[in-house]
Amino acid sequence: MSADKLNLLSFSGKTRILHMTWFAFFLSFFVWFNHAPLLAVMAESLNLTKQQVKALLILNVALTIPARIVVGMLVDAFGPRRMYSMLLFISSFLCFGFAFADDYEQLAIMRFLLGFVGAGFVIGIRMVSEWFPAKQVGIAEGIYGGWGNFGSAAAALSLPAIALLYGGDDGWRYAIATTGVISLVYSVIYFFSVSDTPKGSTYFKPKKTGAMEVSSKGDFFLYLIMNIPMYAALAVLTWKLSPSNLNMLNEIVSTSIYALLIGLYIFQTIRIYQINKHVFTETVPEIDRYSFKQVAVLDLAYLATFGSELAVVSMLPLFFKETFDLSLVTAGLLASGFAFMNLLARPSGGLFSDKFGRKRTMIILLVGLMVGYLLMSMIDSSWSIALAVVVTMACSFFVQSGEGAVFAMVPLVKRRLTGQVAGMAGAYGNVGAVIFLTVFSFVTPSVFFIVIACTSLVALLAVILFLKEPKGQMAEVMPDGTVQMIDVT
Fold first, then answer.
1. What gap in Å lies between CA 419 and CA 222, rounded to an integer?
2. Which of 147, 255, 349, 391 suits a disulfide with 405, CB 3.0-4.6 Å?
């Protein structure tokens, strides 16, 4: 296979690793969103209120914020093979816990813990970047992300029918438990079927663990600032569940969580200083330098793209059901069109980025995303269902192509920090989801879509003003002290 051509029909070498890894991601999303198409049945079975259902949507994406940061560090340190297998193994048992919860409190706790499975995305980003050169990394990461993200659409398409197949009031439980069984089996298959790098290649690890390395004093303070929204999103979730809102947490627990979040931020700040205190007294060697500003811009772009996808995928089945008075199965099928576009859109975003430039591609796609959400804000019962679906899928194309463009660039920031850069960008996707779903719990769907469009404008301006096109080569220090140059163009 040539350096600029990817033969997806092959199942050997790096293409085999790509197929094995995107399917691992597919399963993680299949498990992560196994509740969305079954919410109406679950609500009827357990007598859930609308606010409790909306709380489940927010809980589903909350833990993924810190999980992606932590998993990003662990995958850089221990390798993607071990981490993906472990994540799928643990998530299968969390899935069983959710499937057989007896009341809303158990359901909510298990849904919160299942946010852990959403961290799987970060692992595959590092795996794919180890096996593919810069000329192919955009399309390869796009295929990984796009085909893997289709797991949410597969859940929307299949799980209502599987629940009906099982029959009875507990059909939804067995449908969800089935996804856990598949995850458990594949965790073993993946562990024994892949390796972290091609034979003879070096797996670059961070020099220090516990926080991301930065290159200057300015980057140090920007890093501290960019950590705040992740804690703020968790604080928003706590507020949403507090006595003043859904009353799922009492005053003592809410206050304790706020205090814990403040304590964790202070602890992380101290750890960041311990890892990077040298930037205040000496100049970082050129070979170890990179611009953290690039990470910050990618974070914002992923907040607008993937954050909105997570939020929209969570609410769209119910939106179609209530707007057009459809059955649960029909609404799930129509809503799956949003995630269905992942099969084509995300690889397209990576391919465009490889061919036409990282920055230019991202600008065009963010403009399309913004227009798409403005059009979705106009959908109401006077529209034909066909037109609503076409607009939804068109918007989805720009959303997921934008995600592909973001992660076409993530592996080119700093090779040995790829897991951590991916983890932070991925976490920002979940920050966006928490923000957007919290907004959705207070406003109409139309306003919800307009808020996403405005957020996309902010991300677009950040890309235009601050993102730099990767050029030349990226240097990495080998374990024996020698230097290896890696092409990034």
1. 19
2. 349
Query: Could you give the C-alpha distances from 174 to 23, 39, 152, 162, 165, in angstroms and in order?
Result: 22, 14, 18, 8, 10
Do 417 and 212 meet the contact criterion of CB atoms below 8 Å apart?
A: yes
152 and 30 Cβ atoms separated by less than 8 Å:
yes
| Residue 411 DSSP class | G
**Residue 481: which pLDDT band, with cuts at 50, 70 and 90?**
very low
Could you confirm whether domain 13-196+211-487 is CATH 1.20.1250.20? yes
Does residue 329 contact residue 162 with C-beta atoms inside 8 Å?
no
Residue-wise pLDDT for 369-384, tens only, equals: 999 999 999 999 999 9
Euclidean distance between CA atoms 34 and 175, whole angstroms: 8
Q: What's the length of the chain?
A: 489
**Domain segments of the chain: what residues?**
13-196+211-487
Q: CA–CA distance from 7 to each of 14, 26, 199, 252, 347 (Å)?
A: 10, 20, 20, 57, 14
The per-residue pLDDT for 334 is: 83
pLDDT in tens, 233-264: 889 888 877 887 777 778 888 899 899 999 99
CA distance 66 to 230: 8
Per-residue b or e along 206-238, where b marks 16 or more CB atoms closer than 10 Å to that residue's CB:
beeeebbbbbbeebbebbeebbebbbebbbbbb
Q: Which among 29, 16, 19 is positioned nearest to 403, based on CA atoms?
A: 29
Query: For residue 321, what are its two tokens?
Result: 């059901």
Structure tokens of 7?
């033969």
